[in-house]
Amino acid sequence: MKIAMLSPIAWRTPPEHYGPWELVTSLLTEELVRNGIEVTLFATANSVTSATLRSVCPRGYEEDRSIDAKVWECLHISHCFDHAGEFDIIHNQFDFLPLTYSGFTDTPVVTTIHGFSSPRILPVYQKYNRHTHYVSISDADRSPELDYIATIHHGIDTGNFTYNADPKGDYMLYYGRIHPDKGTREAVEIAQALDMRLIIAGIIQDEDYFNIHVNPFLKEGKIEYIGSIGDERRDSLLGNARLLLHPISFSEPFGLSVVEAMACGTPVVAFNKGSMPELISDGENGFLAENSEEAIEKIKMIDTVSRRNCREHVEQHFSQEIMTKRYIDVYNQILKK
What we know:
The chain folds into two domains: 2-155 and 319-336, Rossmann fold; 158-317, Glycogen Phosphorylase B (Rossmann fold, 3-Layer(aba) Sandwich), CATH 3.40.50.2000. The protein is 33% helix and 16% strand. It contains eleven helices and 13 strands. The protein has helices spanning 20-34, 69-82, 122-127, 184-194, 207-213, 231-239, 256-263, 276-279, 292-299, 307-317, 320-336; strands at residues 2-6, 38-42, 52-54, 89-92, 109-113, 133-136, 150-151, 171-175, 197-201, 223-225, 243-246, 268-271, 286-289. The strands form two sheets. A seven-stranded parallel β-sheet has the order 3-2-1-4-5-6-7, sandwiched between helices. A six-stranded parallel β-sheet has the order 10-9-8-11-12-13, with helices on both faces. β5, α3 and β6 form a beta-alpha-beta unit. It is globular.
């Protein structure tokens, strides 16, 4: 089996700090190679992989703002489809644009839909609904107007996350982009109401939002912003937190940070939206809350959650190996047709 894996090019694959789509693409690619599958990864030239790497774009356009995103996305996608005949399957991790190339090849195209950035992109998915194969990353993120071959939850490399039964930090962690969707303001308000230390880690995606709702309340030892973090610091920060606070205000398709925290044994308190009920079993590996007031009450009970349960839940449902096995099943199902 020969797979062409088409990664996004906003960031390197895998990313050095932020880049969830590139991260999942990398995890799947590496595990496919370990399973003896021949994979060619189409990604930025500075990407790191054990697969065959093909690239036209030198770096991610979010890493180098001199790179025109639209120009290099077109060159990148066309480079993959120019070689479509060399592969048994093209796996598109790039969103909707590659679908517009799919009608020009007989090679089956699998598209992992990492969420819908806007209802306005749905017509593209609808047009190619019968021609390609869609994988949703949660049942909550399925569109009733599309057909799907499977739902496959993201998996993580559990070896990169150290289980910590005895955390040393007495803090809540907010780990994600600074944006209204992710509820950074709500996290600050919850921390203030509980008089608990809050550490905020992630890229600032909305500068005005940060300056109005976060920056004025920063104070060492109380509410701290530490920026975007890499793998080593992430493991320690997640593992030593009393809980991960995830007060999202949108229907999140999946939550990698939620799974990563639980892999370290850290329970999660999340707003009950989108895929959260698929990741969190209320009272067992964290709590689901309907609003800030309910989250505050759930946080007071956080020590009743077994940290071992959190780790085992990830090992049983959200590992890199489980995710890859399910994708291999999808590939085989398509090829049998």
